[in-house]
Amino acid sequence: MENYSPRLFEVYKKDIQPLLKEKLGIDNIMQLPKLQKIVINMGMGDARDNKNSLSQAIDELSIITGQKPIITKAKNAISNFKVRIGDPVGIKVTLRGVKMYEFFDRFISISSPRIRDFRGFSSKGFDGRGNYNFGITEQIVFPEIDYDKVNSIRGMNITLVTSTDEDKYAHELLLSFGFPIKELKNK
Question: Closest by alpha carbon to 140, among 60, 66, 70, 67?
Fold first, then answer.
């Protein structure tokens, strides 16, 4: 198992790198854009009042990602929302390496086609630094989640962090992976 390499990483090395070299006009293979990490956030407005909901969300995100999430806590007190400093407000996971490629492969091939009324992700999710942000509204699009054991539908925000600072390079990288994203509009 120590020499295991994810399928999507092998595809990146064999097929995507030469394609990107030609398409982007980059000679040095080290300058090619690559996926660095995937950050998955799940906001929990009722985490302070409902500990059972928080523990179930942690279990579900652990099953989806294969890694235990950390609890994010409020940095500021907001009296209108009854939030104090240190209250749990969500959970997050940062995936790198093998787990990142395994999650990305499962998301592209299995989970994204299961999203209701799905026509591709918007190209407006780029942040100007080569990273892509998008949200999904239901955790039940992942086949690992047992629908009968879900007590509430939760959404999540997913950030794909790439090694490039150019949105167009990151867009080409995601398209070459087969990520379902619409055409990039020129700014």
Answer: 60
